[in-house]
Amino acid sequence: MDPSVVVLQRVPEVLSRAVEPTILPEGATRRAQDGLHHLLDPGLQVRLQLLQEDSDAEALVAIVPLDQHGFARLNAIYRLLAQLHGRTIPADKRLTRQKRLRAKRMLQTFDGRRAGASQREIAEVVFRLSRVSRDEWQSAPERFAVIRLIRDARALVEGGYRSLLCPDVHR
Q1: Could you list the pLDDT tens digit for every one of the 171 residues in the chain?
Q2: Half-sphere exposure (CA, 13 Å, Cβ side) for 54?
Q3: How big is the chain by its Cα radius of gyration, in Å?
Q4: Are 130 and 118 contacting, i.e. CB atoms less than 8 angstroms apart?
Q5: Across the strands, what pairs with 20?
Q6: Taking a C-beta distance cutoff of 8 angstroms, is the pair 80, 46 a contact?
Q7: Could you tell me the maximum CA-CA distance found in the chain, to the nearest angstrom?
């Protein structure tokens, strides 16, 4: 399950006196076998999953399995609480589309270098660059982008990838 999805259920009896009613904002809702799925804000990607569809449930609790994704789940819960209580919603720490594209390009660059490709050959593949003269290549922005990609790809392969998987843990 995606760790950015906040899993909710009815408040257990032991906590029932300590919790106030939960009022979920408007959003898109979809029923499924594993509960009710609720998308609060498509732009912020705040997604909820209610395990039991219970019209009597006034208060909800979030479930956080104590697994490798626990910190990501806590981050999602923190973002939800900020939204529910009108506070500033912190930035989402998951990989954006741009970061995924850059990681893909870093790996392509690393593979190309390991296979013996020149920086210009890598740029032709990664950036779909048409063949340029030697003089044009010396000042091409793609040349400098490839140099940065090679540098960052080395760091990624030498262990930096962990920061992509768990941004809270490996800083």
Answers
A1: 677 777 777 767 665 665 565 556 666 667 777 666 767 665 656 667 776 665 455 667 888 888 888 888 888 888 888 888 889 988 777 777 888 899 999 999 999 999 999 999 999 999 998 888 999 999 999 999 999 999 999 998 888 777 766 655 544
A2: 14
A3: 23
A4: no
A5: none
A6: yes
A7: 74
